[in-house]
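> call design_seq(struct)
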């Protein structure tokens, strides 16, 4: 791309570092191939090189069909592409995102009430907390008992579960937050813990985080299919909570604070509502959860997914 041999090594290292540092942003299975993605990084690095060095007055011109490198002092090649390159616009262009066509499954209050009555008390409590706090599933699976504050009415999010491990690397910096929940949910949470004071709130049998795929495949999908509804993942509870907050006209800066989202306006930065703990708890108590809660987290309920009974042949006594 018109780079002198003495500088190629430096540009190569720059490209390698950019690829290494941004490989996590590459979408596998997306519209662009990995080689195309790397080539685009190399192309941008070459452009940056020419802009910074301005060697021999090299000007770089791009169009949809070729990369043109021309020398202002060399009339023989001025205006002609030295290194012609054809581009595939379908591979390089970002796809047009139509949010109206994106699939975002959600649930109603009636369906959420069914989730609050699932057979397993652990899953029951997990889904109640997910829908009443609006936390991401990884944040709840990584939640420790020490992060339940103010007599269980505040959930402190400082880490999440990734696989079998806990990490403080959350989705965004704003994900570190305090979520206020209703006193009714806090009472169920306290009952569920049954005196436990350490460890994960929702551990598996060996004390490690639950597998979110198991939650989706063993509980969420079977119940949704039983009700004839489109299947969705663990995020349906977060969408339910956000909808409930908006139906109850909760202040946008409080909503974003609870859901771990960044401020959107200067007014959000100026507002001190999110620092008013008493006010936040009053809102959480006033709006409730938007679905029916069980009287007890350990109450026995009829299984949501019916089992087919198989008749046993009668034994004939001789």
């Amino acid at each position: 791309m018109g780079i002198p041999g003495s500088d190629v090594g430096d540009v190569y290292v720059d490209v390698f570092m950019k690829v290494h540092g941004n490989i996590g942003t590459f979408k596998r299975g997306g519209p662009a191939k990995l080689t195309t993605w790397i080539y685009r990084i190399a192309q941008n690095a070459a452009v940056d090189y020419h802009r910074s060095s301005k060697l021999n007055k090299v000007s770089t011109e791009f169009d949809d069909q070729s990369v043109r490198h021309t020398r202002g002092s060399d009339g023989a090649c001025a205006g002609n592409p030295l290194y012609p390159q054809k581009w595939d616009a379908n591979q390089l262009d970002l796809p047009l995102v139509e949010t109206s066509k994106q699939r975002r499954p959600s649930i109603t209050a009636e369906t959420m009430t069914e989730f609050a009555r699932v057979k397993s008390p652990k899953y029951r409590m997990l889904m109640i907390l997910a829908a009443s706090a609006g936390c991401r599933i990884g944040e709840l699976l990584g939640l420790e008992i020490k992060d339940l504050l103010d007599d269980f009415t505040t959930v402190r999010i400082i880490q999440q579960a990734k696989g079998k491990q806990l990490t403080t690397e959350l989705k965004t910096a704003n994900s570190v937050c305090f979520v206020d929940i209703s006193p009714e949910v806090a009472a169920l949470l306290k009952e569920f813990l049954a005196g436990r004071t350490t460890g994960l709130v929702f551990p598996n049998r060996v004390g490690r985080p639950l597998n979110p795929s198991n939650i989706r495949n063993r509980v969420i999908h079977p119940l949704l299919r039983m009700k004839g509804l489109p299947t969705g993942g663990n995020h349906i509870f977060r969408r339910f909570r956000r909808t409930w907050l908006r139906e109850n006209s909760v202040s946008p800066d409080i909503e974003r604070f609870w859901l771990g989202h960044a401020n959107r306006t200067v007014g959000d930065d100026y507002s001190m509502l999110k620092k008013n703990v008493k006010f936040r708890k009053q809102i959480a108590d006033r709006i409730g959860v938007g679905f029916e809660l069980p009287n007890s987290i350990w109450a026995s309920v009829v299984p949501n997914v019916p089992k087919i009974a198989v008749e046993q042949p009668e034994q004939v006594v001789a």
